């Protein structure tokens, strides 16, 4: 069985300023349907506003901020669960003083818009 | 967008003594491929040893214990990520003093053995 402390996983750049990613479970562990990532968004930083064909299932592990979507801006904090539907626009803002860390489960293949 | 503090979700019996479940994301939120559950295993309790056709992707939120599988018994604690492959036997034991709480992402449909 694959077991790993997520803090021992390499922190990789995501391509977005202030957003780093740990790939917790993906094809390397045998997953073929959905992957688990752990994202860190630095204070004052935002992800890009985007949408894609596949859904996100998210759990906020630490920190606080906002998520912006077609239906407005919503506060989120540690303990929040989010379902981002396919084609639903979404952008995360870290408005807090600490890193906003969240588990992000995504269906294969996650094809991000350019 | 669906956003919910997981602590506001009802804690439901799982059918296993000492194991309760919060359904964080499933078909009610529009999910059609995989679901997110949050499981609480009481100190001294174990889930059943079982296996099924679908994988688990797990993140341990709190507590400590062990997971037992075909390849032995492994310690787990807060921050552990686990990939349980399809048909891989698995049983969780809470050997700690506090509730072991974990996020469990499962593919639809999760059909448990009787």
Report on the architecture of this protein.
2 copies of one chain form a homodimer. In chain A, 31% of the residues are buried. Chain A has strands at 2-5, 12-13, 19-25, 34-41, 56-62, 64-69, 72-77, 80-84, 91-93, 100-107. Chain A has one domain (11-107): Jelly Rolls. The first copy, chain A, is 0% helix and 49% strand. Chain A is mainly beta and 114 residues long. Chain A binds chain B through residues 1-7, 9, 24-25, 29-31, 33-34, 36, 55, 57, 59, 61, 67, 69, 71, 74, 76-77, 79-85, 88, 90, 103, 105, 107, and chain B through 1-7, 9, 24-25, 29-31, 33-34, 36, 55, 57, 59, 61, 67, 69, 71, 74, 76, 79-85, 88, 90, 103, 105, 107.
**Beta-strand content estimate of chain A:** over 45%
Structural class given helices, strands, pairing of chain A?
mainly beta
The beta-strand count of chain A equals 10
Alpha carbon gyration radius of chain A: 14 Å
Query: Oligomerization state of this entry?
Result: homodimer
Query: What is the overall number of helices of chain A?
Result: 0
Most extensive interface: pair and counts? A-B, 38 and 37 residues
Shape of chain A: globular
CATH topology of chain A: Jelly Rolls
What is the H-and-E element order of chain A? EEEEEEEEEE
Whole-number tally of structural domains of chain A: 1
What is the architecture of chain A at the second tier of CATH? Answer: Sandwich
Quickly name the level 1 CATH class of chain A.
Mainly Beta
CATH superfamily of chain A: Jelly Rolls
- Strand line-up in the sheet with most strands of chain A: 2-3-4-10-5-8
């Amino acid at each position: 069985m694959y077991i790993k402390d997520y803090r021992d996983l390499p922190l990789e750049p995501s391509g977005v300023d202030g957003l780093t990613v740990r790939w917790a479970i993906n094809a390397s562990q045998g997953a073929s349907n959905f992957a688990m990532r752990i994202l860190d968004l630095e204070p004052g930083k935002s992800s890009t506003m985007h949408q894609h064909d596949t859904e996100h299932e998210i759990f906020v592990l630490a920190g606080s901020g906002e998520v912006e979507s077609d239906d407005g801006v919503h506060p989120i904090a540690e303990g929040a669960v989010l379902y981002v539907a396919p084609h639903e626009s979404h952008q995360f803002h870290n408005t807090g003083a600490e890193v906003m860390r969240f588990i992000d489960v995504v269906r294969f293949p996650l094809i991000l818009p350019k």
